[in-house]
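Lab notebook, bench 4. We co-purified these components, and the gel suggests they stay together. Before we commit to crystallization screens, I want a quick structural picture of the whole thing.
Request: model the full complex, all chains together.
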Amino acid sequence: MAAWSPSSWRDRPALQLPAYADPGALRAAEDRLRGLPPLIFPGEIAQLRGRLAAVARGEAFLLQGGDCAESFDEPGQDAVESTFRVILQMAVVLTYAAACPVVKVGRIAGQFAKPRSSDTETQGGVTLPSYRGDIVNGAAFDAAARAPDPARLLAAYSHSAATLNLLRALAQGGFADLHAVHRWTTGFVRQSPQGERFEELADRITQSLAFMQACGFDAARAPQLHAVEFYTSHEALHLHYEEALLRRDDAGCYGASAHMLWLGERTRQVDGAHVEFLRGLRNVLGVKLGPKADPADVLRLLDVLDPGHEPGRIVLIARMGSEQVGERLPPLLRAVRDAGRTPVWCCDPMHGNTVATANGTKTRDFGRILQEVRGFFEAHAREGTHPGGLHFEMTGQDVTECRGGAQALDDAALAARYRTACDPRLNGSQSLELAFLVADVLNAARRR
Ligand code: TRP
Ligand code: MN
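Here is the predicted assembly.
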């Protein structure tokens, strides 16, 4: 294999990158980014890899969730805090109900670039570049907004830094303290059946803490109970941005934009630019695998991305669709297992289950999402491999984007608060419901 360098990806075919009108402005933005501090610290990557090695051994569970696409228009505390709060709630459900440590990773603080099926979009006879996420251009359908603008690379960095700063405070500063578990259910979630179920669980946790305290175990001072480790991830799509945020230390190169970076289903070609760039980084690497993924391709990818079989290095994220998971996943599980590989296997039950309503709104059925999760667990049980985690798109806000769930949202109800910048997300109540159901499945799997 040819030598890797931070820019060796530039000699490979690079899909899904924007065409900038002014290469000089792009270079200036890259130079500026190169001089800015890293967003994450490499020791944190090592720590996450250790946690994921435990997941790969079947000793912990990975919970990875957040927006499909973050937006520059939602810079406030609410969006970040409500998403973080729901991830905490889901984590506590899984930790308590399934008695399983949970590794928490957000699709957050950098999830700004989106792959598109077409380079252009036509409306009313006008053709403009497709919206590729806030890091590239604006969503509004006018020529000025849709022109790719290199200044957005710097805006993406600033938004990521501000978001990450808040997340670090929330994770470490008392908000995530298990003694505050009752404070995480707010607003509409509190009124929902899931909210009630969560409150019962919160009561039991509070009682357990009081019990431990009474027994002489100083729960009030135990640092494990006061804070969580929270890691960030996004799709490593915009390679100019990712290269400009590459940093070096004694151990080599790492991507300083997030702890975990993933390759999308559309940009994981073994000789493509995205695989070339990521193979040289120490970060945890995710790979999305759709129903067309071929076992031989997956093994080649693993050889390129993880030649040393390093524990906790790779997360394979299966997004097969509820109808295909039973048929498409097992051959991959077998091939990977028989090659002596032990990546983390994670289930993305969202992206293979996107459908359109009669009037063309993109949605997902809660029942399908759950069905794919079940199929994922069943496939692992049959093949003797570990169902390691869950990858989902959600927001803490009270949106109406996915159908079904205990709230029984139907097509008519979707119009009320359909706000996503890209794919339909689970709302806070649907996310909690999913966590309770997954806790049941995980429990059953662990008892087998
Ligand atoms: N630190 C532990 C953990 O992350 C326990 C914990 C503290 C926790 N706050 C939490 C677990 C919130 C889940 C959610 O597992
Ligand atoms: Mn999406």
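The domain at 36-118+157-447 is CATH 3.20.20.70 (TIM Barrel). Worth comparing against the SEC data before the next meeting. The chain has a mean pLDDT of 94.
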